[in-house]
Design brief:
The structure is a homodimer.
Chain A: H1 22-29, E1 35-36, H2 48-57, H3 70-80, E2 87-90, H4 92-104, E3 110-114, H5 120-127, E4 131-135, E5 137-138, E6 141-142, H6 144-150, E7 155-161, H7 173-182, E8 188-192, E9 217-222, E10 235-239, H8 241-250, H9 258-268, H10 271-295, E11 299-300, E12 306-310, H11 315-324, E13 327-328, E14 330-331, E15 340-344, H12 348-361
Parallel strand pairs in A: 1-13, 3-4, 3-7, 7-8, 8-9
Antiparallel strand pairs in A: 2-10, 5-6, 9-10, 11-12, 12-15, 14-15
Helix pairs in contact in A: 2-9, 3-9, 4-5, 4-8, 6-7, 10-12
C-alpha cells in the first residue's frame, strides 16, 4: 500500500540528537551522582515561589488553562518592560520560535542565521520548508555586518541570539542598533535573549526596548535558565502590534499548561531568587576564569551562565574522559568549535569538581 | 516602514473565540460559584495518582525534561495497546494534530473534515495553508460514505473524531473498517479518540488496533477528559513506523514539560480513578436522559461525557439565561446546530442543578 507522502522538505530535517543525560552517565560509567554542567540549567533548583504556586494550583488541573495566559503575560510585561498585549507565551523559547517561523515563512523563503549559534533556529526554519543561509563569525562573536550584507529580497527572518549560545558573547547597544536599523522592513529580526539576565557588559541593550519603534522586530526570552524552570517550559515572544496580531492566529488556544502559567507568573515575581542566581553565576564565572588562567587554558569571557573553554585537544574525547570522572559538559565539535568545551556554571562545589576533573584528564 | 508579510494564508485564519469562563460568569452575573458544564472537563478533579507524582517531581523543575518522553510513552502504549515506538506525546491532542498537519500538508493541499466536529482540525489545517472540504452529517452522525466519496487525488488528510464532539455520536466497527479500507493510500486518516474511554456501544473499535495494518492511519488521544488532566495538556498520537518516523522530525525536543511527563505517566496507571470517572459519567448520562424525557426535550444519546439537548428555542439565549442561574453550558449555534445545547456530565448535584435551572428557564 502507498504511504502518505510528507511535505517535500521534511526529509531534509536532521533528526534531533539529545545531549548525554545524567542517567546515561550513571549507567555507562557506574557513577553514582554525576555533576551535569552541560545544559545551562540553574544549579540552585527552581524558584521557591514557583514551587509554592505549584501546590496551590494542582487541585485545579482537571480544568482547562486560561487560553489568553492573562496573568502570566502581565507578569512578563512588568519583568521585561513592555505591555501585556506585546507578549505571547509558549512552551519555552522553542515554541515561540516555531510560532514566528510558521507565521512568516512560506516554503522556499530564506532565513539568515549566524553559523555558530543555537541549533533550534535552523530546525524550526527547515520544518517550514525555508532555506537557511549562514553568516560568518568574527573572533567567535556574531558579525553584524555579515548579517546585514547577507540579507536579500527573499530573506524573511534573521535570527540573532544575544547573548549568543554557545559562544557566550554578546553584542552591545551600538551593534544592535546598527543591525536593527540596517535590515529592510520585509525582514523580521528575531532577537533571542534567553541569557540576557546574566549579562554584565555595561552597554547591553535589550531589544525589548525597541519593539515600539521597529515593526519588524521580535524578541524571545525564557524562564529556563534565570528562573530555574527548564523543566516547566516557559518562554515568551515580545513584539509590536503587527507581529502580535499575526501570532495570535497561530497560537493554539491551550498551548500552555496551567502549571506553567501559574509557576511562571510566581517565578517572575521572585526577585530574590533571580538575585541569588546572578550572584552564584557571576561568582562561579570569575572562579572558573581564574582556574582556567591557572591551568593556561584559553576561554571566551562570557555574558551568560556558561563558558567556552579551549582544551586544546579533541574535545569529544576530553568530554568523554570528564564523564568517566562524573562531570558532564558539552563538546563543541558539532558546533564547528573543535577543541572547545562548553561548561555551565554550577554551584561552587560543582565548579571545583569540574576543575579537579579537568586537571586529572588533561 | 514596511512590515514583514505573514505567509499568505495566515490572514484567512479566524481568531480563536474562547468559551465563557467561570470568572466571566462570576463577574457578569454576580454568581458566587457557577457550575461549569461547558468544556467536558472531569468533575472528579485530577487523578490522585497524578497529584502524588507532581509533588515528587517539582524539585527537579530546573532540569530539562526527557526529550524522548520514554516513560510516558511506555505507559501510554500499555494503556492504548500498542508499542512505545508507536506513540508520540504532545501538549494535548491539539499539539499532535499540529504535528500531523505540519508533517503532511503543503500549502494548497486539501483536508477533508466532517461539517460538525471539533473545530481545531480546521484551524490546524488552515495554519499550514491547506484548504478544507467539509462532508455532510447524517442525522447528526458522521457520514462515512460522504467522506470516502469526497476524497480526491489532492486529499492529504481526513480528520475523524470518534466519538464525535460535539454530537456525542460514535461510529462502530463496521463503519471504521469501511472508512479505513475505502481511503486511498496517499490520504492519511487521523482518528481522534479523545472520548473513546466513555464509549458504551458494544461494537466500538479503537483504531489503535489497526495501526499495524494501515500505514496511512494515525490515532490521537488525550488525558484531558478521562484522566482529569485538561490543565496539564497531555495528548498522544499513535501510528505505524512511517508516520512515527516523519513525526520524529517535526517534534521539538522539549515540547512536553516534566510535570506533564510524570503526572501523565502516573495518571495512566490510575485505573481506580478511570473506573470512578466512567461510573460517574454513565450514571450522570442516564440521569440526564431520564430528566430530558421527563421535560419532553429531545437529546442525542451520547458515547462521551457530554450530551446534546435540543431546547427548541434560541440556544444562545437559553445558554445566557442558564448562566444567570449559575450554570455554564455551550450553545451549539456556532456549530450550525441551532436550538441545541451541549452539556458536560457533572457530579450528581451539578447535573441536578442544571436540570433545575433548565426547568426555570424554559
Amino acid at each position: 500500500m502507498k504511504e502518505p507522502k510528507p511535505a517535500s522538505w521534511i526529509q531534509k530535517i536532521p533528526p534531533y540528537v539529545p545531549g548525554t543525560s545524567k542517567e546515561t552517565v550513571m549507567e555507562r560509567y557506574g557513577i553514582a551522582n554525576p555533576v551535569k554542567l552541560a545544559s545551562n540549567e540553574n544549579p540552585l533548583g527552581p524558584s521557591p515561589m514557583a514551587l509554592e504556586a505549584l501546590e496551590q494550583t494542582s487541585r485545579r488541573l482537571h480544568l482547562y488553562p486560561d487560553p489568553d495566559a492573562t496573568a502570566l503575560r502581565k507578569a512578563a510585561a512588568a519583568h521585561f518592560r513592555c505591555k501585556p498585549e506585546q507578549v505571547i507565551a509558549g512552551n519555552g523559547s522553542d515554541e515561540v520560535i516555531d510560532f514566528l517561523c510558521r507565521a512568516y515563512l512560506e516554503p522556499g523563503d530564506e532565513v539568515v542565521i549566524p553559523s555558530c549559534t543555537f541549533s533550534y533556529y535552523r530546525i524550526a526554519s527547515l520544518v517550514c520548508g525555508a532555506s537557511v543561509r549562514t553568516t560568518a563569525m568574527k573572533d567567535l562573536a556574531i558579525d553584524v555586518d555579515d548579517i546585514v550584507s547577507s540579507v536579500s529580497d527573499g530573506t524573511k527572518i534573521v535570527f540573532l541570539a544575544n547573548p549568543n549560545n554557545p559562544t557566550g558573547t554578546c553584542l552591545g547597544r551600538e551593534d544592535i542598533m546598527r543591525l536593527v536599523s540596517g535590515l529592510p522592513g520585509h525582514t523580521l529580526l528575531v532577537v533571542d535573549e534567553a541569557y540576557a539576565a546574566f549579562v554584565r557588559r555595561g552597554d547591553f541593550l535589550s531589544a525589548v526596548s525597541l519593539i515600539d519603534s521597529f515593526p519588524n522586530l521580535a524578541v524571545t526570552s525564557t524562564l529556563s535558565k534565570s528562573h530555574g524552570l527548564a523543566g516547566l517550559r516557559v518562554g515568551f515572544c515580545m513584539a509590536g502590534e503587527a507581529v502580535m496580531g499575526t501570532l495570535s492566529r497561530i497560537k493554539p488556544p491551550f498551548n500552555m499548561n496551567m502549571l506553567a502559567l501559574k509557576c511562571g507568573e510566581a517565578a517572575l515575581a521572585d526577585a530574590g531568587f533571580l538575585e541569588k542566581t546572578l550572584r552564584t553565576t557571576w561568582e562561579g564565572l570569575d572562579y572558573l576564569y581564574g582556574q582556567m588562567e591557572r591551568l593556561g587554558l584559553p576561554y571566551i569571557p562570557s555574558q551568560t551562565n556558561f563558558v567556552l573553554v579551549r582544551v586544546g585537544r579533541d574535545s569529544d574525547k576530553v568530554c568523554e574522559e570528564l564523564m568517566k570522572q562524573g562531570i558532564i559538559t558539552r563538546s563543541m565539535n558539532s558546533f564547528g568549535l573543535e577543541g572547545y568545551l562548553r561548561v555551565t556554571v554550577g554551584l561552587p562545589e560543582e565548579n571545583r569538581a569540574f576543575v579537579d576533573a579537568l586537571e586529572k584528564v588533561l
